[in-house]
Every structure is written in C-alpha cells, then in structure tokens.
Here is the input.
Amino acid sequence: MSEFAAAYYDGRTSARREVRVHAYPGMIQIVGEGLRLDVPLAKVRVDPPVGGTRRALHLPEGAQLQTDDHAAVERLFPRRHAFEGWVDRLERGWPWALAAVALAAVLAWWSVVDGLPRAAKLAAGLVPQTVEAELGEQALAFFDGRMCKPSALPPERRQGLQRGFAQLTAGLADGYAYRLLPRDCRGVGANAFALPGGALVITDALVKLARSDDQIAAVLAHELGHVRYRHSLRMALQAAGLAALAAALFGDATSIVGLATTLPVALLQSGYSRELESEADDYAFRRLKEVGISPKAFAEMMVLLEKGHEKRSGARSSDYFSTHPATAKRIARALAER
Amino acid sequence: MAEPSYEPAATADITVLAERRHPVEFTATAGEYFRIWIVNLALSIVTLGIYSAWAKVRRRRYFHGHTRIDGEGFEYRANPVVILKGRLIAVAAIAVYYGTGRFAPQYQLLLWIPLIIVGPWLLVRSLAFNAYNTAYRNVRFRFDGTYWGCTKIVLSYAWVLLMPIAYPYFKHRLLRFIAENHRYGTTRFEVADFKKPFISAYAKGYGLLLLLVLVVPPLVFFATQSNRPKFPIVIAAMAVFLYGAMFLLFAYLRARTTNALWNALGIGPVRFESALRARDLMWLYLSNLVALALTLGLAAPWAVVRAMRYRASKTTAIASGPLDGFAQAEAQQLGAAGEEVADFFDIDIAL
Here is the structure.
C-alpha cells in the first residue's frame, strides 16, 4: 500500500480540495476534509504522460484528481499507455531527439526527391481519362479567356500543321484524343504546352521560330509525352503533397514561420521536374523515329529556342525555354538518338 | 498601488486585501519542448501523417499543462481520434482546393464564395472545439457563438470590402463576438467596451506606417542624389523596407490590440491585466525569424516557447473573489473537422 498527495475536484465546480490518495489492490481511497471516497481502479482513466506536466486521473461522474507525483501514478497504472508511454520515454532523452532530427531530415529529403514523385505517379494512374479530359477542357477555357487569342497564322499554314500533327499521332492507341490548337499567346512567347486529356497548344511565335515542320513535330512529340505520362496531373499531386508535408513539418510554429516556408515551396512547384522532362524527351525520340523523323530535329529546335530566349532575355522571359531549359545534355541526348 | 483619494482608507484596504494578483506562470522549457516536437515530428513522418493527430494533442497538452494560474495548470482534453477524422476531412477539402487551382483556375475565385459561407462555420466550430477541450481546475471552457450570429456580423460588415481602411471596426466586432460567447463552465465572459483603445491602436499603427512610407523613401532619395545606386538595388531596398515596416506594424498591432481586449475581459470575479509592449514583440519576432533562418527551422520550438513565455510574463489574472466558485456546464459532443480545416487555411483568430 502506498499513498500520495493530490488535488480533488468533484466535477461540478472549480473548488479544489487537498486530499491524500491511498492505493489498495484494485482500488484507491481518496481522503480529505469531509471526504472519504472509494473508487475501483477500473473506473479511473489516466492521461498519458507529457513532459513533466501534472497528471490527471479522471474519476466517475466528471470528478478528477491532479497530482505531481508521477512515480505514484506509474505504480498505480503500470503499462496503461503502452504506446504514448514509449513516446514519452523517447521525448525525455537527447540522443533520441538527435536521432529524430536526423530521421526527419532524411525522410523529408527523401520524400521530396523520391517519395512524393512516386506517390504522385501512382495516384495519377488512378485518375480516369474522362476526368483528365474534363480538367483539360477547363484549363483550356482559362487559357482562351485570359492569355490566348485564336491563331493569326494563314489558314494554309494551320492546315499544314494539322496534317503534320495527324501524321505524328497516327496509330497512337493510348486512349487519348489528341488535338492540336494553334493560338496567339503574346504573353508566353515561343511556347507549346500539353493539357491533360490530349489538347496541345502551340503558339504562333513558336511556329514562326521553327525552320522546318520536323522541328515543330519534335516539340509536339515532347508534349505528347507529357500527356501520355500524365505529367501535369503528377506535378499537381506532387505540389499538393509538398504543401501537406510543409504544413505537417512547420504547421505548429507561428504564422511568420509559415510565411518563410511558403516561398521555397512555391519555387519548387514551377515547371516540370528534370526527371519528367527527360521522360517526355525519351517518348519524343521514340515517337519521332516511329514516324520517320530524325531526333536531330529536336536538338535543332532546342538551339533555336535557346537563341530566341537569349535575344529577348529580360524583356519577356516566360517563354518555352524558361520552363524547358535546353541543357547541353538534352541536346546531346537527342543527337545520340539515331 | 494607486488608491482613489475619495474613498475612505478602510474600504480601500479591504479592496486591496480582497484582490489577489495571479501572474500567469509559464514553466515550459525550450529544451524539453524541442525533444517533444522533434520526436513527434519524426513519428508523424514515419506514419505518413497518421500520428500527427496524436502529436498535436501531445504538443497542446504540454503547453496547456505548463501554463498556470494560481499554481494550477490548464488541460487539453481533445481526443486524437476525433482530430484524425477532422484531418482526413481537411485533407479532402484541401485536395479539392489545390486541384481546382491547378486545373481550373477560373473556378478558384468561385471557391472563395463557399469559403465566405463556410468561413464563419469553420471559425465557430474551431473555437467551440478548442474551448470545450480546454479545462482549468477540472471545469471546461465553452464557446457557444452560433453560425448565424457570426454570419450576421460578416454580412453587416461586408461594406468593409469597399473600404479596407475600416477593417479594424470589423475585427473589433468579430473579437467582441468571440469573447462574449465564451464561457468558463457556466460563467459567461464579460467584455467591457474596448473599442476606443482597439481602434486607436490601428489608427496609430496605420498613421506611423504612412509616415514611414512618406518620409523615409524621399529622404533616401535626396541623400543619395550624388551617388544614385542602380535601379534593381533601389527596388530590392524598397521591398526590404516595406516588408520591414509591415513587420513592425504587425508586432505593434499584436501588442496593442491584445492588451485592449484582455484588459476589458472579465470572468466572474476575475479580470485580466495584459501589458505587452510593442518594442518587445518587435524584437521577439525579429530575433525569432533570424534564429529560424539560421537553423533551417530547428529553432522553431525555442521561438514558440519564447513567445509564449513572454506573453505569459506580461499577463496577470486579478481575482476579487475565490477561484473555486465556478460551476461546470453539461457535456457536449464536438467534431474536429472545422478546427482542422481552419488550421490548414491559417484561420487563426484566437483570443
């Protein structure tokens, strides 16, 4: 038998009474001024320990005991909270804390560079194509409303583009309804983008920049790769996952911390990742060869885009090159494909 | 203590004796909280976020337990399972929000309409959840403001959208609504008129900001006339200056408005004294920000503990009667979805 000091609250008011608690097998007896109460242990609920804060024992009918005698509570309820008791022990030791720092850092790093992209790929695969097409329609409505006007190219030129595009997509049986949509989008320069579901937007500026139809086909083949592998969906899911991760990591700090963490997250979201780009490149090289176009056209187009970007750099940098940097590596890869 | 001269000395003495000052104690330490924070963070990541509900409860329990008035700590009683359910709902809502932003940005503006309708609901539910799960001396707090009560305030102040300068009037009304609808057990919070100090804090803050913006750039402009720096440097300097000015304004308003509200608050025989100083908060926030940047966020627990310790050190509960006469109210059942969604969107209008 042991006993400890506690404060007793009857559950009806905030009145505090100093009591002694006597522990017997299977029950406790609470003794104070004008108070003698027997409570079976089975009817007592105890909160798991947290960092040296006072322990509360919840009694029937909302009554409560509070005590700082942690040892006595542990003796009364050995192993009552197996899991949170274990967490509490981890929280007490600096070695565990340091291990947690290392673990959190490694896992956070891994999930950003590897885990999130994998999870996003998996999740994107579960989205039905009809949903994708719907998302693409809405994105297109946004482009047409705000950024783009109908193409100003002569009708013969547009027909030529459509013929080339038909050849490029002929026989593709991956379920997507590919469409080429020439547009005049002043704000984004020489550019092309793939919308989920199969709509490809190509700007007049890019058509004018290209020296041959093969070069245009090369860019479009790359964009087909983005559609085929659902890259915009994957990026969106990745961004959402990243935001969730950041919220989990820093969610409990003050709002100023929140401000400081949102910026890098936003930067990480711009453009496709290098990995997705090379996936789309591989697709483009394969497809070009299938329809009898040399991947060399891709390298040529990259060089043209790079030159065009440099010429106008500063003034209008949100063109194709700014989101698809043509590294020497990508050009070399295209030239190596024969 | 200043005694009113027109009262008989004897009465004044009795008043002095009857009033007891209870400075709010805050006994958490940065080291201990750091260990709790990082261990729970690591467990949250390892369990793919599922444990985060338990982590939240542990962190709150730690801070509540270490905040003491008259030697007695607060309790946080939320059930982690309820929080987990709330989080799952929050995640679904956020997925819709992000998805819409990415694929149908034209509808993201439309999403603000439900947010305006849902906003008051989130606020009310979140306050109710937090109040009900906070207890002191085994008596729970309560928030019983209604959705309609909150919506009526939002709608009746819709004109503020056209005149953003009048925002403090809306904020004041909302804080009044929040404070008045809190109870400790069955005892309702009473709020004396705090409109004057509240509005004047904003007026002074805005005035100082305006003065700063009107005076400093021209001064710099003339001072550098002979040796004018390059345009990008000027832009960068302006950005830093504006950000810094907003930062100071934020700290100033936080100090003054918190004081205004808390000095007007009464719960039964208890009233409060809040003496936050603007310059202290400016220094606190600034040094916290620098520490966070230098430690890649690892100083977050230290920063949080430090801010809470400062707030506690400047807050005193003054009781004109015993603290044991508060009665408990009947039990409730509350979900955590409102609290969790509000948490994510940073809707944080606590007292």
Notes: The radius of gyration of chain A is 33 Å. Residues 94-125 of chain A form the longest helix (32 residues).
